[in-house]
Amino acid sequence: MAGIDLHLIRTFLSIYESGSLTRAAEELSVTQPSVSYALARLRKQLADQLFIRNAEGMIPTRRATELFTTFKKAVNAIDASVEAGRTFDPAVTRQQFRLCLTDLGELAFLSPILQAFGSEAPHATLEIVPMQIDAVSQWLIQGEIDAAVASIPIEGAEHHEVLYEERYVCVLPKTYSGSPTQLSAEEFAFLRHVAIDPSAGHSQADRLLESMGIQRRIALRLHHFSVLPYVIASSDYAAIVPLRVAELFAAQWPVTLRELPFTIPSFNVSLYWNGTPPTSPAQRWFQQTVAASLKQPLGPLALFH
């Protein structure tokens, strides 16, 4: 990176991420000819076209793709070092933070996080990015999100903090009259189950059941968890969900929960983020606030209803 102006690198990153000279100019608050001139200088210095224009926009070359991660990390490290020397007051900040959550995470986590934001950073903006489990690692690397909460390891994440330990249970309609605390193997096999698409970020239970040779009677397949409590409350279907979410469902809907008839190992729910120290005060506040919010229990809920 020796001999390359930081301004040129920021221009490169903006073109790469936006796929457009016009949008890059808008993001950088400069004219489009300025962006074109910067790109011409970069092409000469790096001896590569870097971007090729087609109907879809500015498409990066292989060399540009190789350079992107290195440039992005370098610029993030520079920005973090500069920010580390500044004071940060959450009470007055208007900064936007981006957190990646599954739709289950939105149901279970948003309330405590928003309470913390409301009391500590009332003018800040929180954007929730829907989880795409295959893309979240790249989002962290590229700085498209500030952090992610997930129940499976995020490859490529540089840091993580365990928030709490979790386990799976079975959710059923309130009218279920079988075993009062734990399903038998026969009851479990007889139930009609709802299956959730693995891209939602909760596929551990299905993989374990498959490895144990246990098959469920799948009656419904959904791509999201958000409609699940309504489906179960209004039918005789069952679903496997994390305990914290099952308790939340049971507190708000006419559903009940039971322990599974076989042992599925517990798992950790963790906060993931990237960034080489020193971390900016704003990012440090954000990570600590999210972690502290989610380490708190949801409240005194009876396990079986």
Structure description:
The chain is of the alpha/beta class and 305 residues long. It has three domains: 6-84, Winged helix-like DNA-binding domain superfamily/Winged helix DNA-binding domain (Arc Repressor Mutant, subunit A, Orthogonal Bundle); 96-165 and 268-295, Periplasmic binding protein-like II (D-Maltodextrin-Binding Protein, domain 2), CATH 3.40.190; 168-265, D-Maltodextrin-Binding Protein, domain 2. The protein is 42% helix and 22% strand. It contains eleven helices and twelve strands. It has helices at 6-18, 21-28, 32-46, 62-84, 103-120, 136-142, 185-190, 204-211, 228-233, 243-252, 281-295; strands at residues 51-54, 57-60, 96-101, 125-130, 147-150, 159-166, 168-173, 192-196, 217-222, 237-242, 255-258, 267-273. It has a five-stranded mixed sheet, covered by helices on one side. A five-stranded mixed sheet has the order 9-8-10-7-11. Strand 1 (51-54) and strand 2 (57-60) form a beta hairpin. Helix 1 (6-18) crosses helix 2. The longest helix is centred in the N-terminal third of the chain and has 23 residues, at 62-84. It is elongated, with a radius of gyration of 24 Å. The protein starts with 5 loop residues before the first helix and ends in a 10-residue tail after the last helix.
